[in-house]
Amino acid sequence: MPDNPVVHRPHAVVIGAGAAGLFAAAALTEFADVTVVERDVLPEGPEPRRGVPQARHAHLVWSGGVRAFSELLPGLVGDVVCRGGRLVPIMGGMVSRAPNEVWFRRFLATHHRNLVCSRDLLDSVVRDHVLKNGRITLRQGAAVLALEGDARRVTGVRLQDGDGTGTGEHLLRADLVVDASGRGSRAAHWLAGLGLPRVTEREVDAGLTYATRLYRAPGTAADGDFPLINVQANPAKAPGQGGVILPVEGGRWIVTLGGTRGGEPTADADAFLPFALGLADPLIGELLRDAEPLGGVAVTRSTANRRRYYEKLRRWPDGFTVLGDAVAGYNPVYGHGLTVAAQGALAVRDVLRRTALTAPGTARALQKAAARPVAAAWDLAVGQDAFYPGAADTPPTAVERLLARYVDRAVATGARNPRAMGALLDVMSMERPATRLFSRDMLVPMLFGPRKPHLAGPPISEAERRAARP
After folding, report:
1. What would the 3-class secondary structure string for 289-356 be?
2. Are 145 and 48 within one domain?
3. What is the mean pLDDT of residues 178-199?
4. Residue 6 and residue 271: Cα distance in Å, rounded?
5. pLDDT of amino acid 7
6. pLDDT in tens, 197-224
7. CA atoms of 333 and 17, how far apart (whole Å)
8. Is there a single domain that holds both residue 138 and residue 22?
9. Residue where a domain stops, chosen among 346, 363, 382
10. Same domain assignment for residues 211 and 330
11. With contact defined as beta carbons under 8 Å apart, do 89 and 112 qualify?
12. How many structural domains does the chain have?
């Protein structure tokens, strides 16, 4: 009687052990054995790592991302909450001012929730969930130097142990290589080296600088569900300045202030509170007066929206896909990067459930599928940032200006009507496409009311203000 044939699973290599890389690895284990190649040595717990400098700033995950996290890695969100994170109702658990300077009412009728915690905690829980999978091998302290293969098919990567400055090279073969190495990705250079055309790129840079300081939550603010405070910058009044207080685990506040060209915050600790008090609404500064700083100020200037249109290349090699920030990085103020990373991984999984990983044309299908959440986040970010002076080589078109005016009106309607707010949050949370803004839930209250008056100031209760006093 003949022996049963041995079925060899495909092998995938994922470049980068950040969120996008780990989500991709989790999705791929259904179809392949996976090797994750990471230049850094990852921390054991919720600690900073060199390759994610933006982790010091305020992060949140919109409900579209929460849903994608749960679908991709069941139990992940619950573990984050068990370790100190929170699911915060939008808008019930927030005090938020829109870019058009309208304060949102704290409606409780919508299902939307933000996952709120430090980035270090989130990354640690993601690593714990993904890397325990027996089909995943982590190769740390190794730099990818180049792709192996040609313009028709990528067959692996060339590695170098350490930081890429040594002499020893190794070939790691793969049926699929996924570049999830972030904003510093060299995929465009590698593809050009294989004889493929240069990818089209676009940048929209509002010139935003971030400054973040960690505080101990004052008074009894750490004892309950203190609201997230968000004062967004107004593109119509450059320089745009805003800030956020993000209450996170450990009784701490992550406070991030931002300003565009001509109004940037600095690393000067003595200037941090005055900057917050000088915002168009001083609420953040008022709440910080009695808060104890826990260290200095971290500053980041790399906040441009930058997109590479890989899905539009006329030729694309089998065996290669680019995901996450390696495709597009966004102004972090909009908080969509983590959601796109998870939704991109789900897009990969959905394609591979229909098409064999090694089949001709699969890699192109993966690239096109992953472009859909990228495009949604890109339109949300650029729709605001393109209006800052000097943000792009060309000014916004007439259509873009018309759409921006409509979005402003949608925001103003959502601020006063819970049905319209639900439609607005469906789009902002990346649960539904932008066409949702033209649904009956938005158009009826926009055109016919009833219209409550706009709030005259931030909807923070006196009890919440008292909680933030010593």
Report:
1. CCCEEEEEEEEECCCCEEEECHHHCCCCCECEEECHHHCEECCHHHCCHHHHHHHHHHHHHHHHCCCC
2. yes
3. 96
4. 66
5. 60
6. 999 999 999 999 999 999 999 999 998 8
7. 23
8. yes
9. 382
10. no
11. yes
12. 2
